Amino acid sequence: MEKKLRILIVEDDPAHARLITRGFRSDLEDFELTTHFSLKDARESIAECLPDLVIVDLSLPDGRGADLIEPQGDKSRYPVMIITSQGDEQTAVDVLKRGAIDYVVKSEAGFQELPRLARRSISQWRLEREKIEAERALRNSEQRYRALIDSSPTSIVVACDGEIVLANGMALKCLGAVNSTEVVGKTIQEFAIPDSDALEKSSAENPEDRIPTAMNEYVLKRCDGRLLDVELMTTSVDYYGQEATQYVFQDITLRKAAETEMRIRDRAIASASDGIFIVQLVDEQVRVVDCNQAFLDIVGCQREEVTRSGLNVIRCDSRYEARYRLIVAGIHSRRPARDTIRIHAGKELRWVEISISPVNVSESQFAHVVGVVHDITEKVRAEEEIRKRNAELAHFLRLTAMGELVAGLAHEVNQPLYAISNYAGTCENLLKASGEIDKPSVQQCVTRIGQQARRAAEIIRRLRNYVSHNAPKVEEFALKDLLNDSVALLAPLLEEQAMEVSIAIDPSTPDVYVDKIQIEQVLINLISNATDAIDDSNAERVIEIKAGPILAKNEPMVQISVRDYGIGLPPNFDVFEAFQSTKESGMGMGLSISRTIIESHGGQIWVEPAFSRGTIFYFTLPTTKQQVTGDVDESDRVCH
C-alpha cells in the first residue's frame, strides 16, 4: 500500500478549514490531513514532520501565509499552495514569484479542485526537486570529472568533431602551451593528433600493432612546432550530450632516448673487439644472460653453448684453474677481480686477461656482473720475441765487454801459466840432479802446479760462463757468491784502475732466486760504469756494494746498492733509456738491458745521487721462485 500524501492545512477561519477538509473527503484514502490555525502552530508541526504539501491562507492572525514559503532550489523542503478569498492577479503573481507552487481562490469550485491541484502540485514539486538533484549531481559529476582530468598526471584532450574543447594542465605542458587558449578551440590536426579516420586506417593496416583503444606510439607537434614522441589512446565519451573523443597520451621522449641509448650501447658492445659477457646471480646461481660475438670468437664456442653451459664454455688450462676459480669467486661475491689465464679455444691455446665488475643498479634479488675478456695472445708472443731479442743483445754486449777485459784476463791467466812453467822446470831439475831425489820438494812443486792449473781453469770457466748463450735458468744462489764472482770477473780491470771494491752484506740477507749469468751482467755493468765515473784525479777510488733484506709491496726482497764517488749524472738524464749514454764510446744499451733483466726477475732498478758526491744505483732481487715474473718456464709464461 502506497504511503498517504501528508497535507498540512493552515487556516484561521474554522468554516473555511471545514470546507477545505470537505474538498478532500472523497480522496481520504490518498491523503492525510492536518489542520492548524496559526503560523506558529504550523511551523511547530513542520519541524516535527515535513508535509508533502502546505495549503495556507494568505492572511493569518500572526502573519502572512506566504511566510511559510521556503527558499527555492535544493534548500526547499516542501511545496506551498496559497489559498485566499480575496484573489487578484497581482497578488497571485507576487506569491508565485516568491515561490508558491500554486494559487487558489476560495470558492465552491476551488474547494472541489483541491485534491487534483494538490496531486499536481506535489508531482510538479517533486519533478522540480528531481531536476534540481539531477542538475546538482551533473554539476558534481562534471566537477569531479574536471578535477580528475586537471589533477591527472597523464595528458588528456577532449575533441568534438575534431575541435579541441578540453585540455588538462598536463596536456598543455606537453604541448608547450602557456594557457588553454593556445589549445582549446584549435583543431586536433594542428597538433598532428590522429583523428578517428586515421586511427581506424592505421588499425586496419596493422590491427595487431595499432588499436584505437590501446596505447600506440605517435609523434605530435607542439605549439612551438617541435615534435614530441607520445603514447596515445583514444576513447569515445559523452561531452555535455555531444559525442566526443577523448585522447589520453603521455610524453615518452625520455624513454625513447633511453631506448636509443640502449640500442647504441648494445651495438657498441656487440661490435667491441673485446669479449663481453653479462652474468646474473639468482640464489647464488650464475647464469650468462648475454655476450657479444667477440666473446664467442675468443673462447671458441657457439651462442647455444653459452645458453646451455654458461661460463663453463671458458675451458681453462689446468695450470690456471686456481686463478680461474678466483674469478668465479669474485662473481659470487660481487667484487671486482682481474687476472691473466690461458684457455683452450678450439685446438689452440690463447692467453686472455679476464676482468669482472659488479653492476650496482638498485637493491634487488637479481644481481648482475659484467665481464671483459681481452685476448692478449699476440701481445704475449710479441713480448716473447722481444725477450729473445733482448737476450741476444745482452749476449752481444757481453761479447763486446770482453774486448775491455781480454788484456787483463790474459795477464791474469799468464800468471798461473808462468807459475806452472816455473814449477815444472824446478821438478825437471830436481829429477835430473844426481844423488837421491828430493821427494818433498818434487811433491810441493806438483801440488802448486795443480793449484795454478785449477786457478787458470777457474778464470777460463768464469769467462766462458759470462759469454755463454745458454737459456735463462732461475736457481737459488747465495748473494755473497754472486757478488764475489762478479767482482772476480772484473779483477784485472779493477787492479789496472787501482779501484777497491767494498762489499757489505747484512747477515740476515736470504738467498736469492735469479738467473746467475743475467744478474752477473747487471753487476758487471754497474761496477764498470762506476769505474768509468771515477776519473784519475779522484782520490776516493772506492766502489761500495751493500746488500740487505727489505719489504717491497709486502713481499720479502733483497736490495743491492752500487755506489761510486765519481762525477755524478747530468740533470734530467734518463740513464735507462735505450741508446742514451754519458760515455763517448758507449752504446747506451747496458742500463736499458739491465732494467729489462731486473724487471723480468720481478724487481726494480733505480738511481739516486749520493749525499756528498757520486751516484748510487739500487736494484731488488726476489727471495722466492714465485716472485720471478721472467721466463722461468716457456710453457708457463704469464704476461703482466
Structure description:
The chain is of the alpha+beta class and 640 residues long. Helices cover 42% and strands 25% of the residues. It is built from 16 helices and 25 strands. The strands form six sheets. Strands 14-13-18-17-16-15 form a six-stranded antiparallel sheet. Helix 1 crosses helix 4 and helix 11 packs antiparallel against helix 12. The radius of gyration is 57 Å and the shape is rod-shaped.
SSE order and pairing:
Elements (H helix, E strand, L loop, with lengths): L4 E6 L3 H10 L7 E6 L2 H10 L4 E5 L1 E2 L2 E2 L15 E5 L4 H10 L3 E4 L2 H44 L3 E6 L2 E5 L1 H6 L21 H10 L10 E6 L5 E13 L2 E10 L1 H19 L3 E8 L2 E7 L1 H7 L3 H7 L5 E2 L4 H13 L3 E9 L2 E12 L7 E9 L1 H56 L6 H29 L7 E3 L1 H11 L1 H6 L3 E6 L6 E3 L1 H18 L8 E11 L2 E10 L25 H11 L4 E5 L5 E8 L18
Parallel strand pairs: 1-2, 1-3, 3-6, 6-7, 20-22
Antiparallel strand pairs: 4-5, 8-9, 8-12, 10-11, 11-12, 13-14, 13-18, 15-16, 16-17, 17-18, 19-21, 22-23, 23-25, 24-25
Find the count of extended strands (DSSP E, 2+ residues): 25
Strand order in the sheet with the most strands: 14-13-18-17-16-15
**Could you give the distance between the termini?**
104 Å
Shape field:
rod-shaped
Summarize the biggest pleated sheet: 6 strands, antiparallel
Question: What is the arithmetic mean of pLDDT?
Answer: 80
Oligomer class:
single chain
Structure characteristics:
single chain; 640 residues; alpha+beta; 6-stranded antiparallel sheet; 5-stranded parallel sheet; 25% strand
Short description:
By secondary structure, the chain is α+β, with helices and mostly antiparallel strands.
